[in-house]
Amino acid sequence: MLIREVVPGDRDAVARICRVTGRGGDDATGDYGDDDVLADVYATPYLEHPSGFGVVAVAESGEVVGYLIGTTDTETFARWFVADWWPRVSGTKEPRTAADESLFRGAIDTNRMLVSHRERYPAHLHIDLLEEARGGGVGRRLVEAALVTLRRRGVPGVHLVVGASNTGAVAFYERTGFTALLDDVASVPGESIVFARDVPGADRSP
Known about the structure:
about 20% strand; 7 helices; single chain; Aminopeptidase
């Protein structure tokens, strides 16, 4: 399995992976009125904004089978997402289902990104893997590659938010050096957990 930095040509593959893993790791195709809308929130904007970064896992066949994407500057990204990206994207879509309405409301709730500890952990990320890429250390390799990128960009720490019921993801982040920040405003008992970790070797001077 090859791990490399994401490139513009990966956009369609990233969007597809986001969709087919969008229901807690299972296929969310058909769950929303527009099959691309999940990626419009959780994937493709990171390929558009200057603070975005990402790495992908590529099978021997050449197919992209997993990704880790995110932003090095959550505050700047969140402002751009709400003021620029989402108005442009949502202007071409209309909520058709209850799931759409919930997603559209959540998209402009910056609290989902602006965690309490964002000064220490200014970056945030998302990881999604197709079933054939799970296990075998692919997720860990994506995290390690992303940490190299973050260190190179001088980012001191990174965070993410995971559903509390996604026990597999919770265990994965615990194994890969992330710590649960249960006191964070975005950690909601029974619903979500903020995980974070320092970037090894990054400059943390004020």
